[in-house]
Backbone:
């Protein structure tokens, strides 16, 4: 029998009755993380578990599984990555984005949940519901479960990276090259501008 997946708002987590048959995954916003906690980690935080190093409170032990990831509701695509001047600029502008590291962490969470025969209900929570919806949809599709819920507004970034964690690797690799070889990058950009101008001129002349 498949597990039941439910999407909820973060504010409704306290309404869940604690049970070893229940799993909870919370998608936190960066603003939810105390500054001292983030600083203690020293890098972009994937999950608060990385700071607590596996320490569980008695609250967590009341569930079959309880974990989180830290990723803001930020939309971006290949074009957004390529439009940045450098990898440093991209990481600054989209510093709290959902990334392939988050996707792999969610895979790990689902593996742990699947390994527990006691768990029959999975609650996935986020603030607006778009991120949680994408995660819930992914679980149902990959486990042969019927899609239960409204997924019309599921986060496109979460959906894309859960389906393929390497989806943005090529664009990011290009950005890394631009960062290491700024002179070559400038020449490439100049060539693109020349080609764009040439194509535009030809189009205008063709319509005269």
Residues:
């Amino acid at each position: 029998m498949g597990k039941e997946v439910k999407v909820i708002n973060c504010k409704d987590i306290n309404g869940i009755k604690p049970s070893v048959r229940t799993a909870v995954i919370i998608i936190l916003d960066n603003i939810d993380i105390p500054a001292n906690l983030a600083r203690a980690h020293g890098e972009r935080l994937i999950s608060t578990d990385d700071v607590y190093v596996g320490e569980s409170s008695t609250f967590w032990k009341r569930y079959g599984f309880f974990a989180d990831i830290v990723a803001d509701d930020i939309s971006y695509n290949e074009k957004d990555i390529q439009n940045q001047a450098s990898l440093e600029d991209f990481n600054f502008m989209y510093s709290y984005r959902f990334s392939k590291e988050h996707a792999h962490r969610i895979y790990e969470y689902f593996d742990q949940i699947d390994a527990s025969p006691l768990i029959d209900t999975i609650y996935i929570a986020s603030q607006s519901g778009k991120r949680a919806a994408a995660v819930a949809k992914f679980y149902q599709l990959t486990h042969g479960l019927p899609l239960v819920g409204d997924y019309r507004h599921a986060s496109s970034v979460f959906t894309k990276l859960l389906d393929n964690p390497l989806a943005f690797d090529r664009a990011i690799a290009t950005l890394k090259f631009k960062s290491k070889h700024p002179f070559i990058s400038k020449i490439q950009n100049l060539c693109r501008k020349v080609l764009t101008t040439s194509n535009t001129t030809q189009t205008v002349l063709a319509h005269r």
Observations:
- The first strand starts at residue 4 and ends at 9.
- The chain has nine helices and four strands.
